[in-house]
Design brief:
The chain is α/β, with parallel strands linked by helices. The chain folds into three domains: 7-156, Spo0b-associated Gtp-binding Protein, Chain: A (Distorted Sandwich), CATH 2.70.210.12; 162-330, Rossmann fold, CATH 3.40.50.300; 348-421, GMP Synthetase, Chain A, domain 3. The protein contains eight helices and 21 strands. A hairpin with a 2-residue loop joins strand 2 and strand 3. It is elongated, with a radius of gyration of 31 Å.
Protein backbone atom coordinates (compact mmCIF):
# COMPACT_ATOMS: atom_id res chain seq x y z
CA UNK A 1 0.00 0.00 0.00
CA UNK A 2 1.32 3.48 -0.88
CA UNK A 3 2.04 5.69 2.12
CA UNK A 4 0.71 9.20 2.34
CA UNK A 5 3.49 11.73 2.93
CA UNK A 6 2.51 15.37 3.34
CA UNK A 7 5.66 17.07 4.67
CA UNK A 8 9.20 16.61 3.35
CA UNK A 9 12.47 18.52 3.31
CA UNK A 10 14.42 18.68 0.05
CA UNK A 11 17.89 19.96 -0.78
CA UNK A 12 18.29 21.38 -4.27
CA UNK A 13 21.28 22.72 -6.15
CA UNK A 14 21.27 24.54 -9.46
CA UNK A 15 23.86 23.75 -12.11
CA UNK A 16 27.25 25.44 -12.19
CA UNK A 17 28.13 27.73 -15.07
CA UNK A 18 30.77 26.64 -17.52
CA UNK A 19 34.11 28.46 -17.67
CA UNK A 20 35.03 30.84 -20.43
CA UNK A 21 38.17 30.14 -22.42
CA UNK A 22 41.13 32.30 -23.47
CA UNK A 23 41.90 31.44 -27.08
CA UNK A 24 43.43 33.29 -30.05
CA UNK A 25 43.25 33.01 -33.80
CA UNK A 26 46.77 33.15 -35.16
CA UNK A 27 47.22 35.61 -38.03
CA UNK A 28 50.19 36.59 -40.06
CA UNK A 29 51.96 39.59 -38.58
CA UNK A 30 50.06 39.26 -35.29
CA UNK A 31 51.92 36.83 -33.03
CA UNK A 32 49.21 37.04 -30.35
CA UNK A 33 46.34 36.81 -32.78
CA UNK A 34 42.71 37.84 -32.42
CA UNK A 35 40.84 36.76 -29.24
CA UNK A 36 38.31 34.05 -30.09
CA UNK A 37 37.60 32.39 -26.73
CA UNK A 38 33.93 31.50 -26.24
CA UNK A 39 31.93 31.96 -23.03
CA UNK A 40 30.73 29.14 -20.81
CA UNK A 41 27.08 28.09 -20.73
CA UNK A 42 24.94 28.97 -17.69
CA UNK A 43 23.92 26.26 -15.25
CA UNK A 44 20.38 24.91 -15.21
CA UNK A 45 17.71 26.08 -12.76
CA UNK A 46 15.64 23.93 -10.39
CA UNK A 47 11.86 24.43 -10.55
CA UNK A 48 8.76 23.00 -8.90
CA UNK A 49 5.64 22.46 -10.99
CA UNK A 50 2.15 21.21 -10.15
CA UNK A 51 1.31 17.74 -11.46
CA UNK A 52 -2.31 16.77 -10.81
CA UNK A 53 -1.49 13.08 -11.26
CA UNK A 54 0.43 13.16 -7.96
CA UNK A 55 -1.36 12.77 -4.63
CA UNK A 56 1.54 12.63 -2.18
CA UNK A 57 5.11 13.82 -1.60
CA UNK A 58 6.33 10.26 -1.04
CA UNK A 59 8.85 10.36 -3.90
CA UNK A 60 10.90 12.95 -1.99
CA UNK A 61 10.93 11.13 1.36
CA UNK A 62 13.83 8.84 0.40
CA UNK A 63 15.20 10.98 -2.43
CA UNK A 64 15.57 14.52 -1.04
CA UNK A 65 18.65 15.66 -3.02
CA UNK A 66 18.23 17.07 -6.52
CA UNK A 67 20.53 18.94 -8.87
CA UNK A 68 20.18 20.60 -12.26
CA UNK A 69 22.70 20.19 -15.08
CA UNK A 70 25.97 22.11 -15.35
CA UNK A 71 26.76 24.40 -18.23
CA UNK A 72 29.62 23.32 -20.48
CA UNK A 73 32.84 25.28 -20.97
CA UNK A 74 33.42 27.67 -23.82
CA UNK A 75 35.70 26.73 -26.70
CA UNK A 76 37.87 28.45 -29.28
CA UNK A 77 36.54 29.85 -32.53
CA UNK A 78 33.94 31.83 -30.54
CA UNK A 79 32.00 28.69 -29.59
CA UNK A 80 29.94 29.21 -26.45
CA UNK A 81 29.22 26.42 -23.99
CA UNK A 82 25.83 24.72 -23.82
CA UNK A 83 23.36 25.73 -21.13
CA UNK A 84 22.85 23.16 -18.39
CA UNK A 85 19.54 21.31 -18.35
CA UNK A 86 16.88 22.70 -16.04
CA UNK A 87 15.34 20.33 -13.51
CA UNK A 88 11.60 20.58 -12.89
CA UNK A 89 10.28 18.59 -9.92
CA UNK A 90 6.57 17.64 -9.87
CA UNK A 91 4.44 18.23 -6.75
CA UNK A 92 0.73 17.62 -6.03
CA UNK A 93 -1.81 20.44 -6.14
CA UNK A 94 -1.95 22.16 -2.77
CA UNK A 95 1.81 22.18 -2.09
CA UNK A 96 3.12 24.99 0.09
CA UNK A 97 6.84 25.77 -0.25
CA UNK A 98 8.85 27.18 2.67
CA UNK A 99 12.48 28.26 2.63
CA UNK A 100 15.12 27.48 5.25
CA UNK A 101 13.87 30.44 7.33
CA UNK A 102 10.30 29.02 7.33
CA UNK A 103 9.05 31.79 5.03
CA UNK A 104 6.32 30.71 2.60
CA UNK A 105 7.66 31.46 -0.88
CA UNK A 106 4.95 29.76 -2.93
CA UNK A 107 1.49 28.21 -2.66
CA UNK A 108 0.93 25.98 -5.68
CA UNK A 109 -2.66 24.85 -6.20
CA UNK A 110 -3.37 24.47 -9.92
CA UNK A 111 -1.79 22.44 -12.74
CA UNK A 112 0.68 24.56 -14.67
CA UNK A 113 1.74 26.70 -11.73
CA UNK A 114 5.47 26.61 -11.03
CA UNK A 115 8.18 28.36 -9.05
CA UNK A 116 11.93 28.55 -9.49
CA UNK A 117 13.69 27.39 -6.33
CA UNK A 118 17.32 28.06 -7.24
CA UNK A 119 19.04 29.71 -10.19
CA UNK A 120 21.91 28.27 -12.18
CA UNK A 121 25.35 29.84 -12.09
CA UNK A 122 26.31 32.35 -14.76
CA UNK A 123 28.67 31.10 -17.42
CA UNK A 124 32.10 32.71 -17.43
CA UNK A 125 32.95 35.16 -20.22
CA UNK A 126 35.56 34.09 -22.74
CA UNK A 127 38.37 36.44 -23.66
CA UNK A 128 36.55 37.50 -26.85
CA UNK A 129 33.79 38.97 -24.65
CA UNK A 130 36.35 40.77 -22.45
CA UNK A 131 37.85 42.82 -25.26
CA UNK A 132 37.66 46.56 -24.55
CA UNK A 133 39.43 49.80 -25.49
CA UNK A 134 42.03 49.19 -22.82
CA UNK A 135 42.39 45.43 -23.36
CA UNK A 136 42.55 44.53 -27.03
CA UNK A 137 43.82 41.00 -26.46
CA UNK A 138 43.06 39.79 -22.93
CA UNK A 139 44.96 36.60 -22.12
CA UNK A 140 42.47 35.42 -19.52
CA UNK A 141 38.79 34.50 -19.14
CA UNK A 142 36.19 34.21 -16.40
CA UNK A 143 35.44 31.15 -14.35
CA UNK A 144 31.89 29.82 -14.30
CA UNK A 145 29.82 30.66 -11.23
CA UNK A 146 28.48 28.05 -8.83
CA UNK A 147 24.75 27.41 -8.91
CA UNK A 148 22.60 28.38 -5.94
CA UNK A 149 22.01 25.73 -3.29
CA UNK A 150 19.24 25.76 -0.67
CA UNK A 151 17.01 23.62 1.50
CA UNK A 152 13.20 23.84 1.27
CA UNK A 153 10.26 22.29 3.09
CA UNK A 154 7.30 21.07 1.05
CA UNK A 155 3.95 20.81 2.83
CA UNK A 156 0.89 19.32 1.16
CA UNK A 157 -2.55 20.65 1.99
CA UNK A 158 -5.19 18.65 0.15
CA UNK A 159 -7.35 20.57 -2.28
CA UNK A 160 -10.89 19.31 -1.67
CA UNK A 161 -14.35 20.84 -2.03
CA UNK A 162 -15.64 19.28 1.19
CA UNK A 163 -13.96 17.57 4.15
CA UNK A 164 -15.42 14.97 6.50
CA UNK A 165 -14.72 15.88 10.13
CA UNK A 166 -15.43 13.59 13.06
CA UNK A 167 -14.09 11.56 15.94
CA UNK A 168 -12.21 8.28 15.32
CA UNK A 169 -14.47 5.44 14.16
CA UNK A 170 -17.37 7.81 13.47
CA UNK A 171 -17.98 6.25 10.05
CA UNK A 172 -16.23 8.76 7.76
CA UNK A 173 -14.23 6.14 5.85
CA UNK A 174 -17.30 3.96 5.36
CA UNK A 175 -19.22 6.97 4.09
CA UNK A 176 -16.60 8.05 1.53
CA UNK A 177 -16.21 4.47 0.29
CA UNK A 178 -19.97 4.21 -0.25
CA UNK A 179 -20.29 7.41 -2.31
CA UNK A 180 -17.04 7.39 -4.32
CA UNK A 181 -14.38 5.10 -5.73
CA UNK A 182 -12.09 5.74 -2.75
CA UNK A 183 -11.30 2.55 -0.85
CA UNK A 184 -9.96 3.48 2.58
CA UNK A 185 -9.22 0.92 5.24
CA UNK A 186 -12.29 0.31 7.40
CA UNK A 187 -12.37 -1.51 10.77
CA UNK A 188 -14.15 -1.31 14.12
CA UNK A 189 -11.28 0.18 16.11
CA UNK A 190 -10.21 3.80 16.59
CA UNK A 191 -7.74 5.48 14.24
CA UNK A 192 -8.49 3.20 11.31
CA UNK A 193 -7.72 6.13 8.99
CA UNK A 194 -4.02 6.96 9.17
CA UNK A 195 -3.93 9.09 6.04
CA UNK A 196 -6.37 11.39 4.24
CA UNK A 197 -8.44 9.90 1.43
CA UNK A 198 -9.91 11.75 -1.53
CA UNK A 199 -12.95 10.68 -3.51
CA UNK A 200 -14.93 12.23 -6.35
CA UNK A 201 -18.68 12.25 -5.73
CA UNK A 202 -21.09 12.61 -8.66
CA UNK A 203 -24.51 14.15 -8.01
CA UNK A 204 -26.62 14.27 -11.18
CA UNK A 205 -24.60 16.42 -13.62
CA UNK A 206 -22.25 17.89 -11.04
CA UNK A 207 -19.42 16.46 -8.99
CA UNK A 208 -17.27 17.48 -6.04
CA UNK A 209 -14.13 16.24 -4.30
CA UNK A 210 -14.69 14.84 -0.81
CA UNK A 211 -11.83 14.35 1.66
CA UNK A 212 -11.87 11.90 4.57
CA UNK A 213 -9.74 13.50 7.30
CA UNK A 214 -8.32 11.21 10.04
CA UNK A 215 -10.28 11.30 13.27
CA UNK A 216 -9.78 14.15 15.70
CA UNK A 217 -9.67 13.91 19.46
CA UNK A 218 -9.92 16.59 22.08
CA UNK A 219 -6.63 18.46 22.23
CA UNK A 220 -5.75 17.77 18.59
CA UNK A 221 -5.07 21.46 17.91
CA UNK A 222 -2.46 21.38 20.70
CA UNK A 223 -0.77 18.28 19.32
CA UNK A 224 -2.66 15.32 20.78
CA UNK A 225 -3.57 12.33 18.66
CA UNK A 226 -3.18 11.61 14.96
CA UNK A 227 -5.58 14.32 13.84
CA UNK A 228 -3.16 17.12 14.65
CA UNK A 229 -0.97 16.21 11.69
CA UNK A 230 -3.91 16.38 9.32
CA UNK A 231 -5.79 19.46 10.49
CA UNK A 232 -3.90 21.41 7.84
CA UNK A 233 -5.84 19.56 5.15
CA UNK A 234 -9.12 21.01 6.43
CA UNK A 235 -7.87 24.50 5.53
CA UNK A 236 -8.34 23.90 1.80
CA UNK A 237 -11.94 22.66 1.97
CA UNK A 238 -14.74 25.06 1.06
CA UNK A 239 -17.33 23.09 3.07
CA UNK A 240 -16.96 21.13 6.31
CA UNK A 241 -19.10 18.01 6.75
CA UNK A 242 -19.34 17.19 10.45
CA UNK A 243 -20.04 13.50 11.12
CA UNK A 244 -21.43 12.65 14.58
CA UNK A 245 -21.56 9.12 16.01
CA UNK A 246 -24.46 8.26 18.39
CA UNK A 247 -23.25 4.70 19.05
CA UNK A 248 -21.95 3.50 22.45
CA UNK A 249 -18.42 3.45 20.99
CA UNK A 250 -18.29 7.20 21.57
CA UNK A 251 -18.04 8.39 25.16
CA UNK A 252 -19.68 11.74 24.41
CA UNK A 253 -23.18 12.59 23.25
CA UNK A 254 -23.54 13.87 19.69
CA UNK A 255 -23.97 17.42 20.96
CA UNK A 256 -20.77 17.17 23.02
CA UNK A 257 -18.95 15.73 20.00
CA UNK A 258 -20.12 18.67 17.91
CA UNK A 259 -18.90 21.25 20.43
CA UNK A 260 -15.51 19.56 20.88
CA UNK A 261 -14.96 19.30 17.13
CA UNK A 262 -15.77 22.98 16.61
CA UNK A 263 -13.41 23.91 19.44
CA UNK A 264 -10.58 21.93 17.83
CA UNK A 265 -11.19 23.56 14.47
CA UNK A 266 -11.17 26.99 16.09
CA UNK A 267 -7.99 26.13 17.98
CA UNK A 268 -6.27 25.28 14.71
CA UNK A 269 -7.59 28.24 12.74
CA UNK A 270 -10.45 30.56 13.85
CA UNK A 271 -11.34 31.06 10.18
CA UNK A 272 -12.61 27.49 10.02
CA UNK A 273 -15.61 28.36 12.20
CA UNK A 274 -16.88 30.60 9.40
CA UNK A 275 -16.79 27.86 6.74
CA UNK A 276 -20.16 26.55 5.57
CA UNK A 277 -21.06 23.35 7.41
CA UNK A 278 -23.27 20.35 6.78
CA UNK A 279 -23.95 18.16 9.82
CA UNK A 280 -24.93 14.49 9.80
CA UNK A 281 -25.63 11.90 12.50
CA UNK A 282 -24.48 8.54 11.20
CA UNK A 283 -25.15 4.86 11.97
CA UNK A 284 -28.95 5.26 11.79
CA UNK A 285 -29.19 1.50 11.27
CA UNK A 286 -27.67 0.91 14.72
CA UNK A 287 -29.24 3.76 16.69
CA UNK A 288 -32.70 4.47 15.34
CA UNK A 289 -33.57 7.22 17.84
CA UNK A 290 -30.35 8.94 18.97
CA UNK A 291 -30.29 11.41 21.86
CA UNK A 292 -29.63 14.72 20.12
CA UNK A 293 -29.87 16.95 23.18
CA UNK A 294 -30.24 20.53 21.98
CA UNK A 295 -28.56 19.84 18.67
CA UNK A 296 -31.82 19.60 16.72
CA UNK A 297 -32.70 23.17 17.71
CA UNK A 298 -29.20 24.44 16.91
CA UNK A 299 -29.05 22.71 13.50
CA UNK A 300 -32.47 22.60 11.80
CA UNK A 301 -31.18 20.78 8.70
CA UNK A 302 -29.57 17.89 10.56
CA UNK A 303 -29.11 14.77 8.40
CA UNK A 304 -29.58 11.20 9.67
CA UNK A 305 -27.70 8.65 7.58
CA UNK A 306 -26.55 5.04 7.46
CA UNK A 307 -23.66 4.09 5.19
CA UNK A 308 -24.51 0.42 5.69
CA UNK A 309 -28.10 0.70 4.41
CA UNK A 310 -27.54 3.87 2.38
CA UNK A 311 -30.44 5.56 4.15
CA UNK A 312 -30.18 9.36 3.92
CA UNK A 313 -26.95 9.24 1.90
CA UNK A 314 -28.43 10.66 -1.28
CA UNK A 315 -29.99 13.56 0.61
CA UNK A 316 -26.70 14.31 2.34
CA UNK A 317 -24.77 14.28 -0.95
CA UNK A 318 -27.31 16.60 -2.58
CA UNK A 319 -27.02 18.95 0.39
CA UNK A 320 -23.22 18.95 0.22
CA UNK A 321 -23.27 19.51 -3.55
CA UNK A 322 -25.65 22.46 -3.15
CA UNK A 323 -23.50 24.11 -0.47
CA UNK A 324 -20.31 23.49 -2.47
CA UNK A 325 -21.90 24.99 -5.57
CA UNK A 326 -23.20 28.03 -3.69
CA UNK A 327 -19.88 28.59 -1.91
CA UNK A 328 -17.89 28.23 -5.13
CA UNK A 329 -20.04 30.87 -6.80
CA UNK A 330 -19.68 33.26 -3.88
CA UNK A 331 -15.94 32.85 -3.42
CA UNK A 332 -13.33 34.11 -5.88
CA UNK A 333 -11.38 31.37 -7.60
CA UNK A 334 -8.49 30.31 -5.41
CA UNK A 335 -5.16 31.06 -7.00
CA UNK A 336 -1.70 30.08 -6.00
CA UNK A 337 0.97 32.68 -5.45
CA UNK A 338 4.71 33.12 -5.58
CA UNK A 339 6.53 35.46 -3.23
CA UNK A 340 8.76 37.87 -5.14
CA UNK A 341 11.49 39.03 -2.82
CA UNK A 342 13.38 42.32 -3.05
CA UNK A 343 16.60 42.19 -5.05
CA UNK A 344 19.40 41.67 -2.51
CA UNK A 345 22.13 44.27 -2.04
CA UNK A 346 25.07 43.71 -4.44
CA UNK A 347 27.40 43.07 -1.51
CA UNK A 348 27.84 43.24 2.25
CA UNK A 349 30.92 44.58 4.04
CA UNK A 350 31.86 43.30 7.49
CA UNK A 351 34.75 44.07 9.83
CA UNK A 352 36.41 40.75 10.66
CA UNK A 353 39.38 40.83 13.03
CA UNK A 354 42.05 43.11 11.62
CA UNK A 355 40.56 43.17 8.13
CA UNK A 356 37.39 43.31 6.09
CA UNK A 357 35.18 40.66 4.51
CA UNK A 358 33.05 41.16 1.41
CA UNK A 359 30.18 38.82 0.47
CA UNK A 360 27.55 38.93 -2.26
CA UNK A 361 27.09 38.00 -5.91
CA UNK A 362 28.43 41.30 -7.29
CA UNK A 363 31.82 41.06 -5.57
CA UNK A 364 32.34 37.35 -6.19
CA UNK A 365 31.48 37.94 -9.85
CA UNK A 366 33.92 40.86 -10.02
CA UNK A 367 36.92 38.70 -9.09
CA UNK A 368 35.77 35.51 -10.81
CA UNK A 369 38.67 35.50 -13.27
CA UNK A 370 40.77 32.50 -14.18
CA UNK A 371 44.16 34.02 -13.33
CA UNK A 372 44.42 37.14 -11.17
CA UNK A 373 48.21 37.04 -11.35
CA UNK A 374 47.93 38.53 -14.85
CA UNK A 375 48.18 42.34 -14.37
CA UNK A 376 45.31 43.12 -16.76
CA UNK A 377 43.08 40.64 -14.94
CA UNK A 378 43.92 42.15 -11.55
CA UNK A 379 43.26 45.64 -12.89
CA UNK A 380 39.90 44.56 -14.33
CA UNK A 381 38.88 42.97 -11.01
CA UNK A 382 39.84 46.14 -9.12
CA UNK A 383 37.83 48.32 -11.48
CA UNK A 384 34.80 46.04 -11.24
CA UNK A 385 34.91 46.29 -7.45
CA UNK A 386 35.11 50.05 -7.75
CA UNK A 387 32.08 50.19 -10.04
CA UNK A 388 29.83 48.27 -7.63
CA UNK A 389 30.82 50.64 -4.80
CA UNK A 390 33.31 48.57 -2.80
CA UNK A 391 35.96 51.28 -2.51
CA UNK A 392 33.40 53.88 -1.48
CA UNK A 393 32.01 51.50 1.16
CA UNK A 394 35.48 50.71 2.51
CA UNK A 395 36.34 54.40 2.79
CA UNK A 396 33.04 55.17 4.53
CA UNK A 397 33.60 52.28 6.96
CA UNK A 398 37.01 53.64 7.97
CA UNK A 399 39.35 51.39 6.00
CA UNK A 400 42.89 52.66 5.57
CA UNK A 401 45.38 51.84 2.81
CA UNK A 402 47.01 48.51 3.46
CA UNK A 403 44.00 46.92 5.21
CA UNK A 404 43.38 43.30 4.23
CA UNK A 405 40.14 42.70 2.33
CA UNK A 406 38.83 39.14 1.82
CA UNK A 407 36.42 37.84 -0.80
CA UNK A 408 36.01 34.10 -0.21
CA UNK A 409 39.53 32.62 -0.31
CA UNK A 410 40.96 35.69 -2.04
CA UNK A 411 42.84 38.37 -0.09
CA UNK A 412 44.04 41.75 -1.34
CA UNK A 413 45.21 45.05 0.11
CA UNK A 414 43.01 48.12 0.06
CA UNK A 415 44.91 50.66 -2.05
CA UNK A 416 42.58 53.39 -3.32
CA UNK A 417 43.65 55.01 -6.55
CA UNK A 418 42.17 56.64 -9.64
CA UNK A 419 39.78 54.64 -11.84
CA UNK A 420 40.80 53.69 -15.33
CA UNK A 421 39.16 55.02 -18.47
CA UNK A 422 37.41 52.24 -20.34
CA UNK A 423 34.15 51.27 -22.01
CA UNK A 424 33.84 48.02 -20.06
CA UNK A 425 30.20 48.08 -18.96
CA UNK A 426 30.06 44.40 -18.00
CA UNK A 427 28.18 44.93 -14.75
CA UNK A 428 25.40 47.17 -15.98
CA UNK A 429 24.58 44.75 -18.79
CA UNK A 430 24.52 41.58 -16.68
CA UNK A 431 21.27 40.02 -15.59
CA UNK A 432 20.89 38.90 -11.98
Amino acid sequence: MTSFVDTVAIHVRAGDGGAGVASFRRQKGKPRGRPEGGSGGPGGDVWLHVDDSMATLLRYRHNPHHRAGNGTHGEGDLRSGRRGDDLSLPVPPGTVVRDEFDVVIADLVAPGERVRLVQGGRGGLGNAALVSKRMRAPGFAEQGEFGEEHRFTLELKLVADAALIGFPNAGKSTLISSVSAAKPKVADYPFTTLQPNLGVVKVDESEFVLADIPGLIEGAAEGRGLGHEFLRHVERAMVLVVILDPSPLQERSVEEQYDVLLAELEGHSPDLLHRPRVVAVTKADLVADPDLGGLAERIPNLHHISSATHDGIDGLMYAIAAVVDRTARELPEREGYILHRPVPAPFELLRVGDGWELTGKAVTRAVNLADLTIPDAADLAAERLRRVGVYTALEAAGAIPGDVVRIGQLEFEYLPDEPWEDDDDWFEDEEE
